[in-house]
Amino acid sequence: MSKKEVKLAELSLLMEALCEERLSVEEKMRLEEIVLSDPDAMQFYLNYSHLHGTLYWDQALGSDDMIPVATPVPETKLPQQTEAPETSRRTRIGSRLVTACLLAFFAVIFISYITQTENPELAENPIGETKSPDNLTVNINNEIVAQPNPNRSIQIDTLKHPMLRTQNEKRVDPFDDRPLIASKPRLLPPAEKLSPRASDEAIVTFINHRIQDGWEAAQVTPSTFATDEEWVRRVYLDVIGRIPTAKEAEQFLTSTQPDKHQRLIQQLTKNPTYVTNWSTIWTRLLIGRSTSREINRHALQDFLVESFAENRPWNDIVYDLVSAEGDSETNGATNFLLAHLNNQAVPATAITTRLFLGTQIQCTQCHNHPFNNATQSQFWEINSFFKQTKVVRSQKMGKDGKKNTQKLELVSLPAKGATFYETRNGLMQPAYPKYAGVKVSDGPDVNRRQELARLITSGKNDQLARAMVNRMWAHFFGYGFTRPIDDMGYHNSPTHPELLNQLASQFIDSGYDIKKLIEWICLSDAYRLSSRFIAENATDNPDDGSTPNFSRMYVKQMTAEQLYDSLQVTANPARVVITDYSTAWNKMQKRDQWLQQFVYTLNNEENDETTTFDGTITQALLMMNGPLVKHSLDYKQKGSILGQVLKEHSPDSKLKKLSMAALTRYPTSRELSELKRLVKERTKQLIARKVPPQTAVVRTYQDIYWAYLNSNEFILIH
User: Fold this and answer.
1) Residue 21 within a domain
2) Is 348 exposed, middle or buried (0-12, 13-18, 19+ CB in 10 A)?
C-alpha cells in the first residue's frame, strides 16, 4: 500500500474508535498527531465527522421533512425520567445504524485498496522485482473492518509508519520526493501592536510588514506587482462580482493619479453592484443556492441589500439575523433561521457558529472533540438558546384572491428549563443556555436568542470579528489564515496570528465597517502581487497542502455568479448597470435559472454545497454553444460589443477592442501579429467556401471573440 493508503487506513480506524467512544489515551494522541500534521488528514477528519454527524441526525434524531408547527403553550414541561429509556433505546438503534453505514462505507474503500495492491498490473513492485525494505505493506483483515471488535486495538505500528519513519530518520523516502508534512515557517519575534483606531495607512503598512515577516520566515521571495490591467480586473471581480467594462478599465489605466488604486476601491464600494454582489454572497452562505425551501429568499436578500447599502456594522447585521422574530415577508432576517430549525435546531446551532464565529462544532453534537476543549455539553448549551424558538405556519390568501399560500412566522415562546441531550453511553443530560463562559437565565421571561445575539456581537469576545476577517481574507486571496476558514481554534492555528488578531481588533474599532476592511485588504502589497510563479516562491503553493505565505496572488476560479455577470458585460455593458433594486432582482432571478446548470446542491442540514464549475463536458458545451456566449456573439443587438468592434476600420483596432472587452488588456505585439494572420487565413477559407466577403469577416471576428471567452484567462481570477 502507498503512504496515503496507510495513513487513510490508520486514520479511519482511529475515527471509527472515536465515534464509538473507545479511543484510548495513546490512540487519542496519535489521532491528534496525524490530523494536525497533514492538511489532507485534517480534511479527511472533517469529512468523516460531518458524515457521522449527518447520519446521526437523520437516523437517530429523525429528519424533519416539514418544519414543525408550533402550538403556543404557557410553559414547557421538563422531560420525565421515565421517558429517558424509550428515547435512549430509539437513539441506540439509530446509532447502530449510523455505525453500520460508516463501516460499510469504509469497507468498500479498504477492499478497493487491497484489490489494487493484489493486481499485478497495478502493484508498486511487480513479480520479479526486488522490493525495497523501505516500502511497507500493511495487511488489513477484511473481517475486522466489516465487523469491528470493541476489545481490539489499532494494529498499525506507529514506529514503522512512513510519516514517523521519515521524521525519525530525518530523510525523505527515496520513492516519493514529496514531503509528507508541509514545512512550517520559523518563528519570528512578536511585532508591535497597532494603536487603537489606527489610520488606514498605518493598518495597510502593518499588513505589509506582517506578510513580509512571513516571507522571511518561510524563506520565499514575493512575485513582482501585477500590472494595472491584471489588478483592475481582479478587484472588479472580487469587490463587485464582474469584470470591468472596457470604458471602466480604460479610465483606470489612463489615470495618472498616484492614489488611483484607493480611489477605485472607494468608488467600487459605492457602486450599487457592490450591494447586490455581497447580498448575493451572503444569501448563498446563509441559505444556499437552492430555491426548494419554503422560505422567502427575496425578503432575505432585501434585508441584506438594505444592510450593505447603508454599510451597517457587521455585528448589527449578525444580531438581527440571530435574534429575528416575525413573519418571513415583513422581516427578511427571519428566513435565515427558518431554513435551519429542523432536527431540534441542531442545524441552526451548527451553521450559526460556523458562519459567524468560524467554529465547527457539529461533531460535538454526539461526542466530545478528540483533541481540543470542545465538548458535547457545550454544543447543547448553545443549542439551548434556540429552545424557545418555534415556527408557526398559517395560510394566507394568494395575490390572485383564490390560491392559498403558506406563511411562516418565527416566534419565541416563554419556555423555561434545560435542553436534554443523550450521551453516547445512553445517559440523558441537561444543558442550560451558556456561551463563552457566560450563563444566561433559563427562566421563561428571558429571550434566549436575543441574549445569544448580544453575547456574540458585544465585542467582549472578538471571535465574531476574527471569523469575519478570516472569511474576507479568504475571499480576496483564495485562502484564509486557517484551513478551512470556518474551523478556527486551538487545533487549527492561523498562519499569521498577529495579523489576524490586529485586523480583528481594528475591525472592531472601526465599528465593524465592512467597506474599511475591504479597503485595507485590497490596498495591501500582497493583494497587488502578480499570480506568476518565480523560482524563489515555487514552494508557496497551498494547492499541495503547504501553508500559504501569500508571496503571489493565488489563481481562483470565477464563481458561477461572477461568470454569468461577466458574460453579460462582454455582450452588452448597458445590461450590467443597476439603477434600482427591483430591476436587479429580476436580473438575479434569470441568473439563478442559468446557475442550476453549474451548481449542484447537496441539500444537507448545513446548506453545504459545491459549485460544479470545474470543466465538465456539460459546462464546456454550455460555454461553447450556450445562450450567454451566443448572446455575446450577436453583433446585431443594440449596444453589442461585437457590433461596435465591427465598425472599426483597421484590424488592429478591432482586435484591441475585443481583447480589452474580454480580457481587460490589449494584445501583445506578438499576439496582435498572429491574430492578424489568422484573420486573413480564416477569411480566405470562408470566402473559398462561397461565403460572402462581408459575412466572412463578421464570422472571423466572432470566432476570435468566442476563443477569448472560452480561454482560461477569461475564466480565472488571476
Assistant:
1) yes
2) buried
Three-state secondary structure call for residue 489? strand
SS3 172: coil
User: What pTM does this model have?
Assistant: 0.73
554-576 pLDDT, tens digit per residue, is 999 888 889 889 999 999 888 77
Q: State which of 391, 423, 457 marks the end of a domain.
A: 457
- Of the candidates 227, 230, 283, 236, the one whose C-alpha atom is nearest the C-alpha of residue 565 is 236
- Which of 408, 425, 457 is the last residue before a domain boundary? 457
CA distance 211 to 216: 9
| Contact yes or no for 388/413 (Cβ under 8 A) | yes
Query: 12 and 154 in one domain?
Result: yes
Q: Are 67 and 294 in contact (CB under 8 A)?
A: yes
Pairwise CA distance, residues 431 & 492, whole Å: 27
3-state secondary structure at position 347: helix
The pLDDT averaged over each successive group of 10 residues in the chain (718 residues) is 68 74 75 75 69 48 40 39 40 48 47 40 35 36 35 36 33 31 44 84 93 92 94 97 95 94 96 92 88 80 94 97 92 92 83 88 56 66 84 72 74 82 73 84 88 88 93 96 84 89 96 97 95 91 88 91 90 78 70 64 44 57 76 88 92 95 94 94 94 94 93 91
556-to-209, 293, 613, 718 alpha-carbon distances in Å = 25, 30, 12, 7
Phi and psi angles of residue 541, each rounded to the nearest 5 degrees, phi first: -135, 85
Q: Is residue 433 part of a domain?
A: yes
Same domain, 436 and 566: no
- Whether 45 and 161 map to the same domain: the answer is yes
Domain extent for 86 = 3-65+76-169
- From residue 616, how far is each of 43, 562, 603, 611, 692 by CA, in Å? 24, 18, 21, 12, 36
Within-domain flag for 224: no
Cβ burial, residue 649 (10 Å; 0-12/13-18/19+) = exposed
Classify residue 203: in a domain, yes or no.
no
CA dihedral 674, 677, 679, 681 (to 10 degrees): -130
Query: Rounded to whole angstroms, what are the CA distances from 389 to 71, 215, 348, 381?
Result: 12, 49, 11, 15
* Whether 706 and 582 share a structural domain: yes
What is the DSSP annotation of 506-567? HHHHTTS-HHHHHHHHHTSTGGGB-S---GGGTT--GGGTPPP--SSPPPEEPPHHHHHHHH
**How many structural domains does the chain have?**
3
Within this chain, do residues 453 and 571 fall inside the same structural domain, yes or no?
A: no
For the record, the C-alpha cell of 33 comes out as 498527531
For every residue of 198-237, DSSP letters joined together read --HHHHHHHHHHHHHHHHHHHT--PPPBPPHHHHHHHHHH
Whole-angstrom distance, CA of residue 305 vs CA of residue 581: 8
**Contact (Cβ atoms closer than 8 angstroms) between residue 408 and residue 328:** yes
φ and ψ of 332, to 5 deg: -60, -25
